[in-house]
Every structure is written in C-alpha cells, then in structure tokens.
Amino acid sequence: MKRIILITGGSRSGKSTYAEKLALSLSPTPVYIATARIWDDDFRERVEQHQKRRGAEWINIEEEKELSRHRLAEKVVLIDCVTLWCTNFFFDMNSDTEQALAAAKEEFNRFTEQEATFIFVTNEIGMGGVSENKLQQKFTDMQGWMNQYIASRADEVILMVAGIPMQVKK
C-alpha cells in the first residue's frame, strides 16, 4: 500500500533526524535517496555528517533528479531533500520557474506511482522572509508550490519546530 509522508520545517529544525528515525521504525532496511549536488567543501562536510549518522542498515542511493529510475516497491524510502532536488531542476532549466515546477511534479508523480512508503524531507524556505534577490524569490516560489503539491498528495504532513514534530495533516 502506498503512503506519502512529508516532513517540513526550517533550517536545523530536526527534519532529517526525525525522518531517519521514522524510516527505521517502519523498516529494518530503509532506502535513503540523497538528492544533493556537492557544490563546495562546506556542503560536502554537511553531507558527510548526514552519512555518518546513518548505519549499515540503510540502502543508500544518490540521485539528483530522476527518482523514478529506481524501482523501490514495498520499501520504505526517505528522500532528503525536496529543496535540493528542486534546486537541480531549477538550475538545469535556466531558472524557469514554471518549467522546473512542471518537471518536478511530473517526476514526483512517476516516482510515487510505486507501492511504497515515501518520506519526503523539505524546507519551508519562505518562512524566513522574502529575499531581495530576484533569483531567490523565483526559487522560493517554486519550492513553496512544490511543497504544496506534495502536501496535497501526502497522507501525513509533519512540521518540525525546534526538534519537535507537529502533526499538520493525518
């Protein structure tokens, strides 16, 4: 049976840690899909910290955009994170918000056709205010619309606040 869970919140709100614990509570061998592109040493270090936190029980996949290439039926799948995944579409499509959003939605739909438990981690970047940078504004719009799209299809939505999970949709 398919189940979609969205975990959202601000930076350092405890989203990933909570999502990892949830995945492990649902499966002894969950799948972790990392969507990040490594763009500098600081980010590489952050990724390495995430990797160290996970043990050998995880099946790890690195996939920047084409999540649906992976057949994961009957698995518990943690996708971390939607924000970086959307960033890959946004920049690969020359910051065209509409085109990037359409492509991300299409890929989300293909991927979630599988009968699996999906745990998507995302950021509420719009909660931090509006940037004066036009490119950042465009991405914030795209990200917010994608979060809304996933939430509308999710069975459950959890907002993380200071490490505390708050049930938004059940």
TrEMBL record:
Cited InterPro entries: CobU/CobP (IPR003203), P-loop_NTPase (IPR027417)
Pathway this chain belongs to: Cofactor biosynthesis; adenosylcobalamin biosynthesis; adenosylcobalamin from cob(II)yrinate a,c-diamide: step 5/7; Cofactor biosynthesis; adenosylcobalamin biosynthesis; adenosylcobalamin from cob(II)yrinate a,c-diamide: step 6/7
GO biological process: cobalamin biosynthetic process
Enzyme class of the recorded protein, top EC level: transferase
Residues the record lists as binding GTP: G9, G10, S11, R12, S13, G14, K15, S16, A34, T35, A36, E62, D80
Entry keyword annotation includes Transcription regulation: no
Reactions that this protein is recorded to catalyse: adenosylcob(III)inamide phosphate + GTP + H(+) = adenosylcob(III)inamide-GDP + diphosphate; adenosylcob(III)inamide + GTP = adenosylcob(III)inamide phosphate + GDP + H(+); adenosylcob(III)inamide + ATP = adenosylcob(III)inamide phosphate + ADP + H(+)
Keywords, ordered alphabetically: ATP-binding, Cobalamin biosynthesis, GTP-binding, Kinase, Nucleotide-binding, Nucleotidyltransferase, Transferase
Gene3D superfamilies per UniProt: P-loop containing nucleotide triphosphate hydrolases
Physiological role: Catalyzes ATP-dependent phosphorylation of adenosylcobinamide and addition of GMP to adenosylcobinamide phosphate.
PANTHER family assigned: BIFUNCTIONAL ADENOSYLCOBALAMIN BIOSYNTHESIS PROTEIN COBU, PTHR34848
Family: Belongs to the CobU/CobP family.
Name assigned to this protein: Adenosylcobinamide kinase
Species the sequence originates in: Prevotella heparinolytica
